Amino acid sequence: MNTFTDPYASSRETTEGTVFSVTGGDWDSLVTEIGATKEERVVVNMGPQHPSTHGVLRLVLELEGETVKEVRCGIGYLHTGIEKNAEFRSWTQGVTFVTRMDYLAPLFNETAYCLGVEKLLGITNDVPERASVIRVMMMEFNRISSHMVALGTGALELGALTPMIFCFREREKVLDVFENISGLRMNMAYIRPGGVAQDLPAGSLPKIRETVKELRRDFKDNEKLLIGNTIWMKRTEGIGYLDLAGCTTLGVTGPVLRSTGMPWDLRKTAPYCGYENYEFDVITATSADVYGRFLIRMAELEQSLRIIDQCIDKLELSEGQPVMVADKKIAWPAQLALGGDGMGNSLDHIREIMGESMESLIHHFKLVTEGFRVPAGQVYTAVESPRGELGVHLVSDGGTKPYRVHFREPSFNNLQSTAAMCEGSLIADIIGAVASIDPVMGGVDR
Amino acid sequence: MNDKGMFGAPGTGDTSGFGGLVRIPASTGSSQRPYGSYFDEVADDLERAYPDFADAIERVVVDRGELTLYIKRERLVDVALVLRDKLLFEMCLGVSGVHYPTDTNRELHAVYPLLSLTKNQRVRMEVCVPDSDPHVPSLVEVWAGNNWNERETFDMFGIIFDGHPGLTRILMPDDWRGHPQRKDYPLGGIPVEYKGATIAPPDERRSYR
């Protein structure tokens, strides 16, 4: 033990051994102090405020030298009780809650939830074609923006700064599309039970086409940086290995499962929202490592753009068609319009309910305050989110509010594989492995 | 129909919303064959592979194109192993708890969605246990990925998964009291004042049935 006291690196004795507190700027004295002890095994707490743990994830690492002997994840730092809260709001209001779970993929949460509500209502086939196409287009844009964060922050955490700048540049363009269509960049509550909140604004399709063209051009920047780059490959190849058997027993889905060579994508195997009508490929890799997963995400960007191209063609043909079910007992009565002070209820609708039709007012009031009743029962619906199978277990007791909303979050399940991927590897490789799982803590903790 | 009020409203006819939400218990019916889709095939295969089928499975429900097998908890692990090894349901997509306070002696339900990658099929297992004895055998030995899911269900509903390697809270703090997603656990919240009016917390607002 050293004799001087360092104000930034204090140590104290406990029954488990010496505990060192690190507060920054003290590495030399810390290393000297730890070196003085005869312990082989050091337990290091990493996170939940560590910049490389991909959010508020806490990792407890047992190290021998630089080798990781055991990893334990600590989660729950972002638990917000969304599932419980949703039981106290109407079925439509639930969308506003669930969109905040996995905040990088809000439209997937909304779609999965709405597909569940529609299945409970038995109106799955009544959702207008145009609404489904808009959902698909929004989801694919969302997949791009989510993969951009996965690639960008993943590279950043491994020390590569430039991909992150490029990725966020692209993501910004996608968020502009969201803002143009829904009015919001994140947590849009745009997809509603029965359809979508509103149709695309006039003249948005040419803009979207332009964005697709720019994205396709700019994705090449990242490909040049991250495919075949020696430094990048040394940090990612053979790291975080998890084979197919490991994936199935751990319930791992998404790019991690596809990196084992298994072409499992719910858009192909159990199509929803009309995915069977689009041409695209399921991207796989056979390396089952971090590099393979990054390659899959990069290749999926192009597939998403392919789907968006087909969506735009379909949307051009279906101009003016409804985007919400015809059943007035379910469809949200109010329409949105751009006013002098931003987006709000359309003045036409206000005129109708306040000045012209008392029945419309009653209808609006009943539907907005009470909501609609959903026949009792339970369903499980799943969509392929950027991270894997996003499942929703919905239970209705026949009332105007959900009885139980449970999200089977891919991040939650995939994060469990951290130990299987990292134990026995070097400490620096944990960062890459966790980044390749791409957990979003908002989704993990809900 | 004598439950129609003056204007044909069912129940009490109270439209104020302050009558409180009336919860009805879960249905107890069982579906009859043929179940349709691939469900008959799954049931046949399971009966063949697991001779105690009739004893282990309380009910088979087909609703909205989904198959649910209600399984006695003593037989859960056996059935799960058969489903995994013989019927190739390689993946368990977690466990979701549901609390039905009015479903006497079956208050707590654990719901397991299963997925077969080989056959692209899904089934659901459901286990019902009384609140006074909330024990369900753990499936971590069958699907390792159920570890965190069972911890979450324990955390939120108080269902104790026997044989789990480390059944501790996962989302709530370790010293938390109660199980937040049970129906008898209040949502909490405070009244919010906005422009002179006070808005009650969500669980004290009007509830419509």
Defining traits:
A: 446 residues, alpha+beta, Cytochrome-c3 Hydrogenase, chain B, 3-stranded antiparallel β-sheet, B: 209 residues, Beta Polymerase, domain 2, two-stranded parallel sheet, 4 helices, 10 strands, globular
Q: How do the strands line up in the largest sheet of chain A?
A: 3-4-5
Poorly predicted runs of chain A are: none
Cα separation of the termini of chain B: 18 Å
The CATH class assignment of chain B is Alpha Beta
Number of domains of chain B: 1
**Strands of chain B, total number:** 10
Rg of Cα set of chain B: 21 Å
Poorly predicted runs of chain B are none
Classify the helix fraction of chain A into a percent range.
40-55%
Q: Helix segment count of chain B?
A: 4
Structural class of chain A: alpha+beta
Basic shape of chain B = globular
Strand content of chain A: 5-15%
Provide an overview of this structure.
- The complex is a heterodimer of chains A (446) and B (209).
- Chain A has helices at residues 27-36, 82-86, 93-98, 106-121, 129-157, 162-182, 204-226, 230-236, 244-250, 255-258, 266-269, 290-317, 347-356, 358-369, 410-415, 418-422, 427-437, 441-445; strands spanning 11-14, 17-20, 41-46, 58-64, 67-74, 191-192, 195-196, 336-339, 342-345, 377-385, 388-396, 404-408.
- In chain A, the strands form five sheets. Chain A has a three-stranded antiparallel sheet with strand order 3-4-5. A three-stranded antiparallel sheet of chain A has the order 10-11-12.
- Chain A has 446 residues and is of the alpha+beta class.
- Among the domains of chain A are: 11-74, no CATH class; 123-330 and 413-445, Orthogonal Bundle (Cytochrome-c3 Hydrogenase, chain B), CATH 1.10.645.
- Chain B is globular.
- Chain B has helices spanning 39-49, 53-56, 76-85, 146-157; strands at 57-63, 66-71, 91-92, 96-99, 108-116, 121-129, 135-137, 160-162, 192-194, 197-199.
- Chain B is α+β, with helices and mostly antiparallel strands.
- In chain B, strands 1, 2, 3, 4, 5 and 6 form a six-stranded mixed sheet that branches. In chain B, strands 7-8 form a two-stranded parallel sheet.
- The mean pLDDT of chain B is 84.
- Chain B starts with 38 loop residues before the first helix and ends in a 10-residue tail after the last strand.
- Classes of the chains: A alpha+beta (446), B alpha+beta (209).
- The interface between A and B is large, with 51 and 51 residues.
